[in-house]
Amino acid sequence: GITNAISVVDGTVYSADIEQQTIWKFPAAGLGITQQPTPFAEVPGCRGLFIDELGFIWVVSTVQPQLRKYTGDGTFEPVFENIVFEFPQQVCVTVEGTAYVTDSAAGTVWRIERGSQPEKWLTGAPLISPVGIAQQGRSFVISDPKANSVFRVSKDARIELIIAGPPLTPS
After folding, report:
1. What Rg, from alpha-carbon coordinates, does the chain have?
2. Is the pLDDT of residue 61 over 70?
3. Largest CA distance in the chain
4. What's the Cα-to-Cα distance from 27 to each of 31, 32, 90, 142, 146, rounded to whole Å?
5. Integer Cα distance of 165 and 117 in angstroms
6. What is the pTM of this model?
7. What is the CB neighbour count within 10 angstroms for residue 93?
8. Is 163 helix (H, G, I), strand (E, B) or coil?
């Protein structure tokens, strides 16, 4: 299918396939020529995934429930029930258990604290359409292809431009 996200833990690769709407798993060492990856979970609208410090596999989806937390055996619990995100892309979870979700259509990065509903954390300029997010030390790195930029963001939401490409021209 079409892999949109990948995460590795304990020698196992997990891959979100947006075409087949499945999270696949396979050994990081690779597969033999006749071997196939194993389906881990069917996730309609799956987009991004993240494996936290405790080994939970977080998956963000375009359909309800939009954020799911899986155990290693493929069972999940919804993090919240309602539809909030317009077009979620990726998820990143801190050691404290706070999830951050990029939403390209809303031009927003959402924060979901343990036991709480999603709240807009970053929205508006300089972000246009954030897609990628990764934690780097005490900050986050966020990629935004429509802004043609990569930003560093502190936990208190201070945004710093770290890479700026040339201005994009409409095609």
Report:
1. 16
2. yes
3. 49
4. 7, 10, 23, 28, 34
5. 35
6. 0.92
7. 23
8. strand
